[in-house]
Amino acid sequence: MNYKKIVVAGGGVLGSQIAYQAAYCGFDVTIWLRSNASIDRTVPKLENLKGVYESMINSMEKGEDWALGIADKDNFDKKTCLEKSEKAYAGIKLETDIAKAVEDADLVIESMAENKDDKIAFYKKLAPILPAKTVIVTNSSTLLPSTFAKFTGRPDKFLSLHFANSIWKNNLTEVMVQKSTDKRYFDEVTEFAESMRMIPVPVLKEKSGYLLNSMLVPLLFSGMDLYVNGVSDPESIDKAWTLGTGSPKGPFKILDTVGITTAYNIVSMYVKIPSFLAPYNFKGMHKMLKKMIDEGKLGMASGEGFFKYNK
Length: 311
Fold this sequence. Notes:
Helix content is 45%, strand content 12%. The chain is an alpha/beta fold. The model has no long low-confidence stretch (mean pLDDT 95).
């Protein structure tokens, strides 16, 4: 693996985190964004991440908390980590010209919203302008890579690389192939993930939701279903989960962390299921999440979702 230039397509919650972590680990990183308005939304995310990394590094120095995406315990050096974070923040490039963004790219990480048609349009636009060497991965949390492989123009160099939220601490990546993926690129992407201080786990058969979200999404659906059906409120539902299992976050805090728009896009894929076949009240969830989006309650990143946060 000799990847140097990394392009992240999308500057959302995870896209910005992936870009920052890759830059922190020494890669040349560009974020491709659709418009200047997208740049305006991404810049504050990167500024926030700079603060998060600095706060985490200070906490690590005091022994209060640890983030393996930032450093190992046996060779931690605060000054070095702070310098790496500062260099990452200063070095990330934001670009709206897709041809300029992917010029000489070794790896493109697609981290756009969970919208099948938008992703297909992106791959069709990307295919004719990519260098022959470039490998493409999707960070899609629910959509299968085989859905998009033929549109990439290089199905042998295309697979999934899914990151967990709070990447600096939850340093998990799921590496999932599709039937045309060449093992060489599976191995290269796995090595790249390790070089980003991630712990890669293989997913050798396509599965919507991979490993993590196959377990997480039903929890989120169950929490929202309890709420929209009037069984209880978000705070109480979260308490039931955290106090009953010892987990640090309940389903609604997780939804706020992931982002309400992402949750809305996932629910949208299920809302057309006939009511008598649907295991959850997807129509109720869809209506609730749409109302939140219209009100600007997009989750932790906007300062309010199901709960309020200090920005």
